[in-house]
Amino acid sequence: MKQSRQYYKLAFIFISIAILSFAVLAFSTAHAQSVDELKNKINASNDNIRQLNEEIKKYQSEIDALGKQASSLKNTLASLDLSRKKLEADLAVTRNKIDSTNLEIKELSLQIDDKSERIDDGKRVIAQSLNTISQMESDSLIETFLSSRTLAEAWNNTDELNTLQSGVKDRIDDLKNVKISLEDNKKKTETKKAQLVSLQNDLANQKKILAETVKEKNTILAETKNTEANYKKVLISKEVQKDAFEKELTDLESSLKFAIDPNSIPSSGSGVLKWPLDKVRITQYFGNTEFATKNPSVYKGTGHNGVDFNASIGTPVKASAGGIVTNVINTSIAQRCGYGKWISIKHPNGLSTLYSHLSLPTASVGDSVTTGEVIGYSGNTGFTTGPHLHFGVYVTKGLQTIESKSCPGIMIPYAAFNAYLNPLSYL
Q1: Which residue stretches of 138-150 are H helix?
Q2: Dist. CA 51–CA 185, nearest whole Å
Q3: Which of 75, 87, 299, 326 has the greatest number of beta carbons closer than 10 A?
């Protein structure tokens, strides 16, 4: 009778394992089909992104070519139209990234469900197996031999028990690996959700920049009545205002005397700052550059006080180091005056950084930002000859701000000449 009970127990546990394994297989097959469908959709989104990026490169190349030509109403309007098309493509890329990220989150969710189901099934199988083992082991080895008709049968019963025990151990090991994989998928899901929030913020900001670009074109058309002669008059008026601004800034800088304590700032070449853009192309360096030398009426012999980077309208601008946002100028007045829309950040190492000519600042005064955090988007605001990012580095103690007389209603940054530092010395 004992031998029959053992056979029934073994048969029961093996049948249970088979049933559960079949259920897991059916669930996994359905899951695999769903995952394949999601992967196909993700691949389609990624293909769209690649095609859109090719369009963006084409628009950027055309924008760069226009930037090398003489300023005219026709070229300015053409550049704005190309910027609009590029921004629309940027929007489409972001939408595809959002779609792709949502699909990836669904894929991870399916994998989590699959692994959770496997863990639950595994626990049930292990519980049943352990219960059977416990009952089988309650019979002593001597009882097993005495209840068997032959010695071979006794050994077979003992081997079956060992096989069952070994199977339980393998299932436990498998569950440990599944659990590790489950935790990894959960972490990936949280990362993807954070990326999704960031992409949604990008989308909202890109829409604002696109609207501003369209508005700028309409403003130019209204000012010039779409004639080249009127455009030239607007340019002359801007040059007069720009000269007044530069003179004001130089006068303020000349009036300041500042002694730098070299121990209060990082040493040159320390690399304490990171590039404010993902793709770096310098269009003007710091100091008495060729452009600064050829434009003495602008720079008054003091040289260029920062570094200019090529950056099309809407390019994400990042904090070059962690710190506190001290100034954010984001008014319509700044659209065509001075540094345009700009942000400054005070860093704990004695340096401050300036990011100007932005299309859209996204940080706020008092924000604590981290290295590489997006704080705004590049643009063509203020006195510029084309879209770019002006990046300045100052000794914090020497940096001041004041309301501009030539651009009433906006604050401008200024410092003693020796408080301006070469950004490349710290990047």
Answers
A1: 141-147
A2: 30
A3: 87
Q: Which residue has the tokens 């669930």?
A: 27
Q: Ranked by mean pLDDT, which of 132-146, 159-173, 276-290, 395-409 comes out on top?
A: 395-409
Exposed e or buried b per residue across 406-423, where buried means at least 16 C-beta atoms within 10 angstroms of its C-beta = bbeebbbbbbbeebbbbb
Q: What is the CATH number of domain 262-425?
A: 2.70.70.10
Is the separation of the CB atoms in 326 and 354 below 8 Å?
no
pLDDT beyond 50 at 232: yes
Dihedral in degrees, nearest 10, Cα atoms 34, 39, 45, 51: -150
Report in angstroms the alpha-carbon separations of 98 from 46, 48, 176: 11, 12, 33
User: Maximum distance among all alpha carbons in the chain?
Assistant: 115
Rounded CA gap, 371 and 309, in Å? 18
| Spatial distance between the Cα atoms of 240 and 221, rounded to a whole number of angstroms | 21
Domain boundaries, the chain: 2-220, 262-425
